[in-house]
Amino acid sequence: MKRKLLFLLALGFSLCTMAQQGWPSVYGGVMLQGFYWDSFDDSQWSVLEKKANDFYGYFDLVWVPQSGKASGSKSMGYDPLYYFNQNSSFGTEAELRSMITTFKNHNIGTIADVVINHHGTNNGWFGFPAEVYKGVTYQNVASDICANDDGGKAAAEAKKQGVQLSQNNDEGDSWDGMRDLDHKSSNVQKIVKVYEDYLLNDLGYAGFRYDMVKGFSGQHIGDYNSAANVKFSVGEYWDGSAEKVKSWIDATGKKSAAFDFAFRYSVRDAINGNNWTKLENYGSTGLTVGNGAYKQYAVTFVENHDVQDRGTTSGYNPDPIRRDTLAANAYLLAMPGTPCVFYTHYLAYPKEIKAMIAARKLAGITNTSKFENNRKSASRYVNEIDGTKCKLMVVLGNDYEAAPSDYVKILSGHHYAYYLSKSAETAWVDKADGTYEGENLKVKLTAVSTVSDAKLVYTTDGTTPTANSTQVASNTEITLPKGETTLKVALLKGGVVSEAITRNYKVSPVEAYTPETIRVYVNTDQVGWNSYVNFHSWGGTHKGTAWPGDNVTAKETVKGKTWFYKDYTLNKADDYVNFVFSIGTSSNAGQNQTLDVERVKKTSYFVISSTKENGKFTLNNVTAEVTSIDGVEADVRQNKADKYYYTLSGMRLSEKPTQRGVYIHAGKKVVVK
C-alpha cells in the first residue's frame, strides 16, 4: 500500500511537471518582444530595465535579443559564437543579470532567444571556441557539423583540411554562412542542455524562444525542454500553414508553443488589402479556432523583427503592416492565444496598447478562451471573446453608431473599439498607468453594469473607495493635477461598492526645448576618400537615410586638416543621430564603410582610421582635441566685477548661457559645458 501511494505521488508529480513544460493552459499573460532589428539603443539591458515599472501589471513576459557574445562586433545575436560569455551588443553580463532580476521583482519573466540551429566559428571553417563553465570545458567540433552543411561547401572544405564532419545530413533548412549543427550528436545535445540550464538556473531566464526551428527536428526541442523542465517555450516555425505548425508542435511532444504565423498573415492581408473579411483567411484550422488542442500553444503576433520595414537593407524584403497599427493590436490583444506585442508598436503607442491589455485582463481572456464572430464585412468585423470574468467585444473598421444593448463601450480609436459585457459589474478607467505630459490629465470613468443608473466612487489618495467617497455618474471625465496620483475607482450599486480598479499616474509639464543644430565632421586622410563621403544616418527623431546615405561634398579646414561635414538638428533633449560613413553606391558601399557611430548628441569630429575590424574601418572621436582652445579655462563662476557673459561676437547675454559653447566672462574665454 505504501509503495502504491509513493508511486501515485510520484506519478502525480511527474504529470504536474509535464504540464508545466511547453506553455501553460488557461494562461492570461501578455508577452512583449523587447527589440526590433538594430534596436541597439532601445534594447540595451540598462534601458529595458528602466522600463520595468512601465511594463509592470501589463506585460508578463519580455522576449529579449540573444544575449551571448556573437560573431559580429555589432550583432542582433543570430550569429552566435559563445554560449557562456554573456557580453553582447546589448550590454554586459552584469547588466543582463540586473535586468532579469529587476523584471522578476516586477513579476515579469524574461524569455531568452535561443539560437542553436547553427553556430559561429572564430578560427576558420571548423574552429569553434572552447568555453569553460563550472570547471568543465564545452566545445563543438567538426564532427558536430551536418554532412551537407552550406550546400556541400563545408564538406569540400573538410576534405581539403582532412577533418571529418558528421555522417548525418541536416534535418531541415540550412543557414548558409555558419555551421549547421547536427542535433543527433551527443556532444551537441550535451552542450545545449548545459547551456539551457545555465540560462534558466544561473542567469534567471523564465523560458525560451527558439530561433529557426525549421532547421532541425522538433523532437530535439521536446528533449531539450524535458531536460530543462522549462515552463515557457515558443518556436519560430516560420510557415503560414497552421497544419504544418501543428505538426511541429506535435513533433515536440506538445512541449513547446509556436508563433502563429497564419494569424499574422490574416491580419496583414486584411489591413493591407483594406478588407476586414480577409481575417477569415486564418481559416477553420487556425491554432486558436474552435475548441482545438492547440490554442494553448499559439503565440499570436502581428509583426516582428523579421517582417518589419528595415528601410533599404540589402537582400531583405520587408512585409510590414502598412497602416492601422492600433487596430491590428486591438485584434491581437482581444483574441485567444498568448499575444506578443512588437516593440516598435509599443514604443509608438504605449498608452493605447496598455489600455487594451488592461481590458483583456479585466475580461479574463486567456490563451484558451472561446470566441465567435457576429459580423463580417469588408468595412466591419466583430468578434466576441469569452473571458473568465466577462465577454469582450472587438470591433474592427466602422464602429457601431450605438453600443449593443448588453455591452458598454470602454475604448475606441481609428478603426477599432472595445466593448465589455454589462455582466462584468465593474468600474473602468480609460487611461492606463504611466507618465503623461501636460498641466493636467483628463481621465474618463465608466460604469459597466446591468443597472442603468449605477454610479462610481473614487479616491485620489490611494485609499479604498467607500459609499461616502466622491461619487460620479458613468462616463464622467475627471481632471488630475500635476504630480503623482493613485486613483482608485469602484462601482457603486445598491449601496454596495465593488472591488476597486487602481491606476498610478505621474503628470509632468511639457519641458520646453529649443532645437539645436550640431555639425558632424569626418576626416578621411588615412583612407584617401578625397572627393566625397556618404553619411548614412538614423536614430532619435531622424528618419533613416536610404543606404548608403547622403553624398556629402562640403569641406572645411579646421586645425590644419580637411573635414567633410553635415549639419543635423536635435529636436528634443534626448535626441541623437547614428552614422555609418562610406564611399560607393548602394551595391558596393558595404566594402568601404566604417563601423557604426552611435548616439551623437553634439558637434563632433571623427577621423576614419585605415585599421579595419571585421572588414569595416574603425574611427577615432577626436572632438576633445579639435575643440580645445588655447587660453580657455573652464567656467568656475568666479566672482568678478563684470558678471555678464558675452558671445564671441560681443553680444551681452542677460544671464549665464545654458547652451554649450565658448563665451567671454570676467575678461576671459570660458567653456560652458
Structure description:
The structure is a single chain. By secondary structure, this protein is of the alpha/beta class. The protein has 13 helices and 40 strands. Helix 6 packs across helix 7 (218-228) and helix 10 (325-334) packs parallel to helix 12 (350-363). It is globular.
Strand coverage percent:
25-35%
Please, what is the average pLDDT? 90
Number of helices: 13
Through-space gap between termini: 81 Å
DSSP summary, beta strand count: 40
Helix content: 10-25%
Class computed from helices, strands and strand pairing: alpha/beta
Radius of gyration: 29 Å
**Most strands sheet:** 8 strands, parallel, barrel
Dominant shape = globular
In spatial order, strands of the major sheet run 1-2-3-8-9-10-11-12
Q: Topology of this protein?
A:
Layout: H1 2-20, E1 31-33, H2 45-50, H3 52-55, E2 61-63, H4 93-105, E3 109-114, E4 118-119, E5 131-133, E6 136-138, H5 153-161, E7 179-180, H6 186-203, E8 207-210, H7 218-228, E9 232-235, H8 242-251, E10 257-259, H9 261-272, E11 298-300, H10 325-334, E12 338-342, H11 343-348, H12 350-363, E13 371-376, E14 380-386, E15 391-397, E16 407-413, E17 416-421, E18 426-429, E19 434-437, E20 440-448, E21 455-459, E22 470-473, E23 476-481, E24 483-493, E25 496-497, E26 501-508, E27 516-523, E28 533-538, E29 550-552, E30 555-558, E31 561-570, E32 577-582, E33 597-600, E34 604-613, E35 616-621, H13 623-627, E36 633-634, E37 645-646, E38 652-653, E39 661-665, E40 668-672
Parallel strand pairs: 1-2, 1-12, 2-3, 3-8, 8-9, 9-10, 10-11, 11-12, 19-26, 27-34, 36-40
Antiparallel strand pairs: 4-7, 5-6, 13-14, 14-15, 15-17, 16-17, 18-20, 20-23, 21-22, 21-24, 24-25, 24-26, 27-31, 28-29, 28-32, 30-31, 32-33, 34-35, 37-38, 37-39, 39-40
